C-alpha cells in the first residue's frame, strides 16, 4: 500500500469514527494487500494487523453458499430440487403447502422463510456460543408445534421462489442441509474443502475456537462514545458466526473473484463461480441492490454494478466486493457498528482499492 492510500484510509476512518479496520486486495488469484489500521482494542492500544480476527457477520453467507455449490458440483444436490427430501423434519410454507422450497430459493433469499419471528424471539446469547443446536433451532422455528413456530411470522404470505426477503433462518437451513447431504457438519466440510486448500488457518466458526488475544474488540457508539460490547453467539451459525483475519479471508475472496481458484488451489469450477454471480431481479429486491445471485448480491459502487456482500452485527461491520471482469476482490472489516458515515467510508475505501487492483 502507498502513503497516499494509507492517508486516505486514515481520513475515512476519522470521519466515520471507525476505531479499527483491516483491508485486503486480491487480483488474478494472488493476494496483493492485507493490512490493518487503527485499533483492535482502544484501551490497550492494540493495533489491528493482517492477523487480527474480526467477526464477519453476514459475509459468512458467501462461505455457506460456496459449501452448497461444492456439494452441487459433486452431484449431491441440484439447485432446483425440493430441499425437504433431504430433511428429517417437514418443511412447507403453511399458506403454500404444495410449493416446494429449493436450494436456489434459499441461496437467493426467495424461499418465503421469514426472519420476522427470529428478531422477536432474539436467539442471540451475549459473550458465548449459542447453546441451542442448529437442528433444534430449525425444528423449533420451522415445524408446526415448535417452540418458536408461528404460521404468520416464520413464513411470508408469498409463494416460495417469488419474492426477495432476506433470511438468516434460510441460511441456517442451508448449513444444516449441507451437513446432512455431506454426512459431516458443514463446519468440518468448509475446513477441509475451503480453508485447508487456501491455507486459511485462522478462520473459526465458534467463539470458543477463536483465540481471544487476537480478536478485534467490537465497539458500539453510546452517547457519542465508542463503547466495547460483548460478541454475540447465535444458533443459526451458517448465517453469520464466522471469524477470520483479513490475511485469511482475502484468500477466499481472491478465489471468488478469480473464477473459483486462487493461490494454486481450486475451490469451485469456473462455471459454478459464474453461476453464483449471475444476478437476478426477483420481486421485492430492495432499491439499494441491483441483483441477487447465489449467496452474492450486486449493487452500484461508484456507478458500476459490483457483486458484493455486507455484514453487520453489534460492534462489527464488514464488506466484500468483487469485480469478476478484472478478477479483483477486496475485503474490509471494521470493529464498530455500521453507521451512515461508516457505510460511506467503507464504499469509498472499497472503490479506491478496486481501482488500485484494476490498475495492476
Compile the SSE list and pairings.
Layout: H1 3-16, E1 20-27, E2 30-41, E3 46-47, E4 53-55, H2 60-73, H3 103-107, H4 116-121, E5 125-126, H5 134-142, H6 168-181, H7 186-195, E6 203-204, E7 219-222, E8 225-228, E9 232-233, E10 243-245, H8 246-257, E11 261-262, E12 265-266, H9 270-276, E13 291-292, E14 297-301, E15 304-313, E16 316-323, E17 328-334, H10 340-358
Antiparallel strand pairs: 1-2, 1-17, 2-3, 4-10, 5-9, 6-10, 7-8, 11-12, 13-14, 14-15, 15-16, 16-17
Can you summarize this structure?
This protein is an alpha+beta fold and 360 residues long.
From the structure above, extract its key features.
360 residues, alpha+beta, three-stranded antiparallel sheet, 10 helices
Strand order of the largest sheet: 3-2-1-17-16-15-14-13
Report the major sheet.
8 strands, antiparallel
Total E-strand runs: 17
Structural class: alpha+beta
Using the alpha-carbon principal axes, give the shape. globular
What fraction, in percent, of the residue positions are helical? Answer: 25-40%
Strand content: 15-25%
| Separation, N- and C-terminal Cα atoms | 13 Å
This entry's quaternary arrangement is: single chain
Number of helices: 10
Please explain how this structure is put together.
With 360 residues, the protein is of the alpha+beta class. Helices cover 31% and strands 22% of the residues. It contains 10 helices and 17 strands. The chain has helices at residues 3-16, 60-73, 103-107, 116-121, 134-142, 168-181, 186-195, 246-257, 270-276, 340-358; strands at residues 20-27, 30-41, 46-47, 53-55, 125-126, 203-204, 219-222, 225-228, 232-233, 243-245, 261-262, 265-266, 291-292, 297-301, 304-313, 316-323, 328-334. The chain has an 8-stranded antiparallel β-sheet, sandwiched between helices. Helix 2 runs parallel beside helix 6 (168-181). The longest helix has 19 residues, at 340-358. The two termini are 13 Å apart.
